[in-house]
């Protein structure tokens, strides 16, 4: 397991380097001469030179890249070209809403998906199985923005039950809860399909195994056989799936956040890119890439913990 | 599937490596009613997209004063706009036909790009075991960078447009495709006809192209078809966000985004292109699954 994690960490180094290089490149796209931007167009040349020297802009590119790495490591990612707030503070405000949305989405979609997949596998070939499979194919075929628009149209406008603009505060407050319902439900809908499908095929595999037959033979109830002997083993691939599908989920989250004006990282990233706010775009991409490296690491560790056969 | 495996291990020439003949594959495919319906519908949509300039009833880019006309089946519908008009009075049916072209092309080119590079990486990896750990490490690295993030990054550097989105979809499909291609190719490399080819002194290039590539390509293409739906969805989502296609271009995801502002008074502007995307992706998914089951059940999993 340690070997596995070490391997993953080593693989992360070039990825991280590439992302940082990209971030550096993005900052080079900031229009205009940074010294002029800071000192104003009327500043005399010697002042501009002094600022360039102070900021290291007269240094070779490699040195500038090195300085950039040092700044990022200390949390300094520059300032937004639009709000003039530091990128770090923009990011800091956006991380919690995104995590909140993801957790709220997984909180209902994973159990439901696992439940649906298990029922489908146990009653293989039945009408229930067919319905689950049809729903999951339909679910992965629906564009996420369509789901969001329908949710707004029906549960926000036609029957105005839930608000659909912005975040109402922390999720445990009434307002916060009401605001998160529509985005979390919409995002979860695209995730149930893959989870149900994976659970189904995984449970079907496990049900063929000897230990399940033994459990049945010694007279355990079907319920106990499935819940304790089959499902537990079947969930291992599902954990991997959640990790592998994290990118798919992020794609959905970015669209969901944008449509519901949810103040998370995804909306921040899209807004920054559309308005050519390169420092913020750079910051969001760095943070999201870092999040993915960490998620992959966590999935590897979880996988090794759940399945002792994986010893790296 | 033991029959298939046996047939593979006992053959000595690459041409015989295909599964034994039962009913021809397309007949078995068409017997699956859902798959047949999906294929036919997808075929019609593709045909309509190809013929867009010939069959579209109006200029898809021309504004008019008839804004937000609902489709023909509602009371205020107009015969000259079968599916109504959008917020700028443009004919939705015509925009739909042109938009489907762009949406499908983004998916197809992205898939082709990723498919060619990915398969080459996977096949080379299996052909030269010495390169295998390096190529696979590269693939693992690419896997940890999700498609949507790649899309955001490319658009951030290159600016909004169809090109960066297509490249992102292509690059994002490389690692999955490389893994599958490698898996298929490793199986082929173990077979006797490769050994036989080596023994009679064939060059690496001949061996690679005529013996390995030829036998692997159908399985790889089936796998790629399974991903097509997801690529279409991702491309449409990026265009919906305003990162892909740019106005006045017509693209289904962008059309849905433009309809967002009129959701209250004219929901059809957003709903019609969204439903079309759903249909395309659904057909691609259903047909892809059926194609895999018929042609290459080993890929299931």
Principal-axes shape call of chain A: elongated
Structural class of chain A: mainly alpha
The shape of chain B, in one word, is elongated
| Structural class by sheet pairing and helices of chain B | mainly alpha
Mean pLDDT of chain B: 85
What is the CATH class of the domain at 91-299 in chain B? Mainly Alpha
User: Uncertain runs of chain B with pLDDT below 50, 5 residues or more?
Assistant: 1-16
H-E order of chain B: HHHHHHHHHHHH
Low-confidence stretches of chain A: none
CATH superfamily of the largest domain in chain A: MetI-like
Largest interface: A-B, 47 and 44 residues
Number of strands of chain B: 0
Helix/strand order of chain A: HHHHHHHHHHHHH
**Name of the level-1 CATH class of the largest domain in chain A:** Mainly Alpha
Specify the CATH architecture of the domain at 91-299 in chain B.
Orthogonal Bundle
**Portion in strands of chain A:** under 5%
What does this structure look like?
The complex is a heterodimer of chains A (312) and B (301). With 312 residues, chain A is mostly helical. Chain A folds into two domains: 2-73, no CATH class; 88-311, MetI-like (MetI-like fold). Chain A has 13 helices and no strands. Chain B is an all-alpha fold. Chain B has a domain at 91-299: MetI-like (MetI-like fold), CATH 1.10.3720.10. Chain B contains twelve helices and no strands. Chain B has helices spanning 2-10, 25-31, 33-50, 52-55, 92-127, 132-143, 147-158, 162-189, 192-199, 204-240, 252-259, 268-295. Mean pLDDT of chain B is 85; it is low at 1-16. The chains are: A mainly alpha (312), B mainly alpha (301). At the A-B interface, helix 1, helix 6, helix 7, helix 11 and helix 12 of A face helix 6, helix 7, helix 10, helix 11 and helix 12 of B.
